[in-house]
Design goal:
Elements (H helix, E strand, L loop, with lengths): L6 H9 L8 H21 L9 E5 L5 E3 H15 L4 E6 L6 E2 L9 E9 L10 E9 L19 E9 L3 E6 L4 E7 L4 E6 L10 E4 L9 H12 L9 E2 L5 H11 L1 E5 L12 H14 L3 E3 L19 E4 L1 H14 L2
Parallel strand pairs: 3-5, 11-12, 11-13
Antiparallel strand pairs: 1-2, 3-4, 5-6, 6-7, 7-8, 8-9, 9-10, 13-15, 14-15
Helix pairs in contact: 1-2, 2-3, 4-7
The protein binds 2,5-anhydro-1,6-di-O-phosphono-D-glucitol and manganese (II) ion (2 copies).
């Protein structure tokens, strides 16, 4: 029988390569994977379980909250709250950070997450996901504060996502490449299916909400026109693909090659996406897979949040395409 390399076995094997590893990180990652499996189960049966639709509330982002947003958020909160190695968590769905009960003073990790990315796609059966980011806190012996989260993305020790698509996947990095696992529902385990993911050269997909064009700066319009013109050999095989679920768009572009943009525009000078829950973790993954991520000017992983819900423009994907966007933005704005 072929060897079943489950996520837990893989993490344990890797752990052996780290001097002094305590197993705490392994336990933390397994709990996030467990949350992903539970959310996946809910998503798969969503239409049968009365979990579709809105709660009628708005979150801190001013966006309507869906029932599945709440289910995923509550699940992650309760699983992480019990782990003594987690000092605090911050969620896209929560105004304030949460100091955990078990790890309040002793926890060495801080966890950020977007419990359900792509909320607008929940009710129409289109791929959604969960994104997470793990940092080590620098202070100890007292409850963490929001300042503990305000550090460059390059200080993340791990980041990943679960994708609830035609199959459920778990993709993560600890700064040593990117590995992807597919949920085998018959054994309830994530199994290694995409070892050492690398973004292929060539930009197969351009992903942007082009209906925002009326607000875009000239540099963004010129970049998108350049890609569509067919004049540049680098973009002759490029097609437009936009799911409207960031993590699904980034995942597809990671597998096929491509660039995703949600730029600054005349209405939203910081774009839409959130630094701690979306841009930092996905930038870490895409860089580890050989790609790049910027806000049009700066490397995303160099940017420090000034609030838990700081937003940031995001250009992410093949390095050549991200760099070219930056050149258009420098000349004409973007
Ligand atoms: P979330 O569902 O976590 O609030 O994130 C929504 C994001 C992201 O997933 C997606 O790329 C983007 O919103 C889509 O925005 P538009 O509908 O403005 O294109
Ligand atoms: Mn999101
Ligand atoms: Mn979300």
């Amino acid at each position: 029988m072929a060897e079943l390399m489950t996520l837990s076995r893989y993490i344990l094997q890797r752990k052996r390569n780290f001097e002094g590893a305590t197993g705490e990180f392994t336990l933390l990652l397994s709990h996030i994977a467990l949350a992903a499996k539970v959310v996946s189960r809910q998503v798969a049966k969503a239409g049968l379980l009365d979990v579709l639709g809105k709660t009628g509330e708005e979150n801190i982002q001013g966006e309507e909250v869906k029932k599945l947003d709440v289910i995923a958020n509550d699940l992650l909160k309760s699983l992480l709250n019990d782990l003594p190695m987690v000092a605090a968590i911050a969620s896209e769905e929560e105004e304030d950070m949460i100091v955990t009960e078990a790890g309040r003073e002793v926890g060495k990790y801080l966890v950020c997450f977007d419990p359900l990315d792509g909320s607008s796609n929940i009710d129409v059966d289109i791929t959604i996901g969960t994104i997470f980011s793990i940092r080590k806190r620098k202070t100890a012996g007292k409850a963490a504060t929001p300042q503990d989260f305000f550090a460059p993305g390059s200080e993340q020790v791990a980041a990943g996502y679960a994708l609830y698509g035609s199959s459920t996947m778990f993709v993560y990095t600890t700064g040593d490449g990117v590995d992807g696992f597919t949920l085998d529902p018959s054994v309830g385990e994530f199994v290694l299916s995409h070892p050492d993911m690398r973004i292929p050269p060539g930009c197969k997909c351009l992903s942007a909400n082009t209906n925002n064009r009326r607000n875009w700066f000239d540099g963004t319009c010129s970049f998108v026109d350049h890609v569509a013109s067919g004049q540049d050999p680098a973009f002759q095989g490029t097609s437009a693909r936009y799911v409207g679920t960031l993590v699904a768009d980034v995942h597809r572009n990671l597998l096929t090659g491509g660039v995703f943009l949600y730029p600054a525009d005349k209405k939203s000078k910081n774009g839409k996406l959130r630094l701690l829950y979306e841009a930092h973790p996905l930038a870490f993954i895409v860089e580890q897979a050989g790609g790049a991520a910027t806000d049009g000017k700066r490397r995303i992983l160099d940017i420090v949040a000034d609030g838990l819900h700081t937003r940031v423009p995001l250009i992410i994907g093949n390095r050549e395409a991200v760099d070219l966007y930056g050149r258009f933005a420098a000349l004409e704005g973007g």
